[in-house]
């Protein structure tokens, strides 16, 4: 369970960053870079874009430090920046992004086959199926409308509360719940083959 301590640490670091303490900035980045990068990657599906936008996020944080006021949790403020930059990137590259959704590369289809013990091949098959299922889930999430996609990612992967999601997205809590409900219905349809045990997409 989270306590108030992480919030206090972040606020203290931001105050130090505001006074051009580069060490404090490095500590702040280390504390949040994995969550920021992972969330952006889930939203866009491109590691290079995710790394670039994550860097932009922390540049914004550094520049905003002198004006930062801890009126909300630092994490909520931080992910509002994430949301804005991702939305900007998505709109700028929307055409290419949508065309890329279903163009996932095949994984080593020409790789040589080796004879392995049956127990090993069964375990490998399970790993492949698990990986394929996760890839299908990621693709399905990335194909959701913008608002639904960010709500799902913040709720499912970053474990934000409804209230935190509402603050990041600048909408009401009932709107967040509605977005999540519609997203779940869409994902249920898109992933119906896995839900029914068929092990693949339609």
Structure write-up:
The chain has 202 residues and is an all-alpha fold. The protein folds into two domains: 1-101, Rna Polymerase Sigma Factor, Chain: A, CATH 1.10.1740.10; 115-202, Winged helix-like DNA-binding domain superfamily/Winged helix DNA-binding domain (Arc Repressor Mutant, subunit A), CATH 1.10.10.10. The protein has helices at 5-18, 22-44, 47-64, 74-92, 94-100, 118-142, 146-156, 162-169, 173-190, 192-195. Residues 1-7, 94-129 and 198-202 have low confidence and may be disordered.
The name CATH uses for the topology of the largest domain is Rna Polymerase Sigma Factor, Chain: A
Structural class of the secondary structure composition?
mainly alpha
Unreliable segments (pLDDT under 50, ≥5 consecutive)? 1-7, 94-129, 198-202
How much strand? under 5%
**Count of helix runs:** 10
- DSSP helix fraction: over 70%
Give Rg in angstroms. 20 Å
What characterizes the major β-sheet?
A: none
Written as H for each helix and E for each strand, in order along the chain, the element string is HHHHHHHHHH
Judging by the overall fold, what is the CATH architecture of the largest domain? Orthogonal Bundle
Secondary structure blueprint with pairings:
Layout: H1 5-18, H2 22-44, H3 47-64, H4 74-92, H5 94-100, H6 118-142, H7 146-156, H8 162-169, H9 173-190, H10 192-195
Helix pairs in contact: 1-2, 2-3, 2-4, 3-4, 4-8, 7-9, 8-9
